[in-house]
Design brief:
five-stranded parallel beta sheet, Oxidized Rhodanese, domain 1, globular, about 35% helix, alpha/beta, 11 helices
Length: about 300
């Protein structure tokens, strides 16, 4: 009887292990322990030359800026999420299926580098694919650990990737306006100089921020503004210091939905506030509509 109970327990744990959601962050030790395992795809986003010189064994590569992870929409707003069909074609073409656990490998030299990982992570989540993680510290951490590298190009056979679009994760301009009127917390992920209206993104039409927004610059969320995310205790302290609640509805934004994905990732996946959403169009879209309000802390 004891043997039967033990077998059932092991069987249950095995089933639970297959359905448990992937950890948002993995470290170098996890990567080295799982390299070469079936069902795990390592996706490198560094430049081609750096990738060819040395990558995690078996890792494939994609170009974040050119391969179709983001696109200009019909209104001319840059950096928007493409249609599910386009993304399914892109991801399946890389050799990724719905059965795969995808581990994203940004360069990791800066917090903005990690934004490549968080933006693509958000994209996979929007598509209904939960088996996705980011290497904390990116490839910079992997190389510093002197872990095994492989040279040359790796390509996988194309696979079928199907999507289950989570529309509630893609916040529109109209929804942000409604949230603003309702007093929902809006989190500006940009640098402080852009938040106060001293400077702006080249594609933004006006300086300043959305009225009432609180600022939590994305480069505060990693150690020294580099590629390693701060501990959860440190992140929560930063939230308190910045006046950003760790629970309740909130929407992150930046200029084009890149930096905002870092604040979204930290809020939703690390701090654990699942009511955190992200405004994809961000300030490039918002400032192009002259009817929408802006607030400036400085006016020169």
């Amino acid at each position: 009887m004891k043997k039967l109970i033990l077998m059932l327990a092991v069987s249950f744990l095995g089933i639970a292990g297959t359905t448990q959601a992937a950890s948002p962050l993995v470290d170098v030790a996890w990567v080295t322990a799982n390299t070469g395992k079936t069902g795990i795809v390592f996706l490198d986003f560094r430049g081609n030359a750096a990738y060819l010189r040395g990558h995690i064994p078996g890792a494939i590569r994609s170009n974040y800026g050119k391969d179709g992870w983001r696109e200009k929409d019909s209104d001319g707003t840059i950096g928007m999420i493409p249609s599910p069909d386009k993304l399914a074609t892109l991801i399946g073409g890389l050799g990724i299926s719905n059965a795969d656990h995808v581990v994203l490998l940004p360069a990791g030299n800066s917090s903005s580098d990690m934004g490549v990982g968080t933006r693509v992570y958000w994209t996979f989540k929007v598509l209904g694919h939960d088996e996705v993680s980011i290497l904390n510290g990116g490839m910079n951490a992997y190389k510093k650990a002197k872990a095994k590298l492989e040279k040359g190009l790796v390509k996988l056979e194309p696979k079928t990737f199907s999507t289950q679009w989570r529309s509630e994760m893609v916040v529109t301009k109209a929804q942000v306006k409604k949230a603003l009127d309702a007093g929902v917390t809006l989190v500006d992920s940009r640098t402080y100089d852009q938040y106060v209206g001293l400077n702006k993104h080249p594609k933004a039409k006006r300086k300043g921020t959305i009225p009432g927004a609180v600022v939590l610059p994305q480069n505060w969320l990693t150690v020294g503004g580099k590629g390693t995310f701060r501990s959860n205790d440190e992140l929560k302290e930063l939230y308190v210091a910045s006046g950003v609640p760790t629970s309740g509805e909130q929407i992150t934004f930046c200029n084009t939905g890149h930096w905002a994905s870092i604040d979204w990732f930290v809020g939703s996946e690390l701090v654990g506030n699942k009511q955190t959403q992200m405004y994809d169009g961000s300030m490039v879209e918002w400032t192009a509509d002259a009817s929408l309000p802006m607030e400036r802390k400085v006016n020169y």
